[in-house]
Amino acid sequence: MTSQPPGSRSTRSPRARFGDGYAFDGEPTLDGPPPPGFHVTTRSRVIGHGRATFEAAGDAVLLWQVHRGSGFVPLEVPDRVTVGATSVWGVTFGPLHPPVACRVFAVVRSETEIGFGHAALVGHPQRGWESYRVRHHDDDRVTLDIRVVWRPAAWWMRAAGPASTLALSLVLRRNLRALDDVVASA
User: Fold this and answer.
1) Which of 1, 18, 5, 4 is nearest to 118 (CA)?
2) CB–CB of 88/99 below 8 Å?
3) What is the pTM of this model?
4) How far apart are CA 141 and CA 57, in angstroms?
5) Chain centroid to CA 2: how far?
6) Nearest to 21 by CA among 121, 89, 154
């Protein structure tokens, strides 16, 4: 066992504690069915109306603003979402900030949809993936749609049982409100 002198800081990257592979078998998809034993949780919220809101919110999603605005602490995060990019965040649960790492597997940018999907890497407390998509509907509504395909991976999440579902709901509630300042100024 090694120790560090008082006041010194580790130079080890937060990314180093995670593996390179996904924390599940198979390939993630934006809309496909979940693997056996996984849950699917979806949330959606109207965040505004019009093309300007759609563009501003979509750009914000691709700049990680759903995560930043939700209170996540960026540990190793690229400036912009790109396929293959790995991000490491500290998730805020009161005094706890467990790190999580995901790799982007898809980016979508069309006339009616902007967003991305990223999947948990080995070492993440959950197995699965998430997508964050801003959609511009025919009736001019703009929604933020979140889809999480998941199951607990860490022993403490499995032990938490239904409380892990509650924790996910709390995080998703923060996610859905994370773009409020962005769309208010659009």
Assistant:
1) 18
2) yes
3) 0.86
4) 12
5) 33
6) 121
Distance CA 39, CA 149 (A): 6
Note the residue count of the chain. Answer: 186
The one-letter amino acid code at 59 reads D
Task: Compute the distance between CA of residue 126 and CA of residue 119 in angstroms, rounded to an integer.
Answer: 10
* Token representation of residue 107: 């980016």
Q: Rounded to the nearest 5°, which phi and psi values hold at 79?
A: -60, -35
Residue with tokens 């490491």: 88
- Mean pLDDT, each 10-residue run in order, the chain (186 residues): 43 78 85 91 96 97 93 92 95 78 96 96 85 98 96 67 72 89 86
Q: Which of 117, 73, 120 is nearest to 98 (CA)?
A: 73
Q: Give the model confidence (pLDDT) of 30-63 as tens digits.
A: 999 998 999 899 999 999 999 999 999 999 999 9
Structural domains of the chain in order of their starting residue, each with its CATH number: 18-28+37-184 (3.30.530.20)
